[in-house]
Specification:
Helices cover 10% and strands 59% of the residues. With 205 residues, the protein is mainly β. The protein has a single domain, classed as Porin, CATH 2.40.160.20.
Amino acid sequence: MFNINMKQTYTVILFLFFLSYASVAQKFQGGIAAGLVGSQVAGDTYSGYNKPGAYTGIWVRLALNDRSSLQTELSYFQKGSRHNPDEEKQDYTTYLMRLGYIEMPFLYQLNLKNKITFEAGPSFSFLIHSYEELNGLEYTGDFRLFNTSLMAGVGYPITEKLSAHFRMDSSILSIRKSLVSEAKSRIFDQGQYNDCILFFLSYKL
């Protein structure tokens, strides 16, 4: 008959728990990111990434193997549209749309042989503030609180902890609740859509 010492058993179980936790924790990495955004709205008749904005956030990454990983982020993302007058074209219209989102993307990352990282995946956003004006007059836009977009981009390491990233972000749901006269169609929706280009630096903590 074996004489089971419960105290020793609990000690072994506790040791194995912390050992497994440490091995899993080693697969996770975290950090911060910040950068600049250029945005436009498809379907508002004003083309060009003329609306500058800011991007800042935190991220957590889970390594799957030596070449691939999964990453999720929680970020503040400024989007919108801007149109400035053009006297040569006798266009005196001014327009400004400012949209601020809390965004959470879920990205698959693939490390290529030339150190470049390809990343892509869906992103889910929540609108926290909005502003819209035409020819200096502010009015209330019927913007959706929730939206979904697709992200794709590349990253390149500058140092062991610092990397530079370029991404494109396009919404697949209309940013407005109602249709507009110049509405565009995307997948299974129709309306206006955020299109953004994003350059940012990421620092691993």
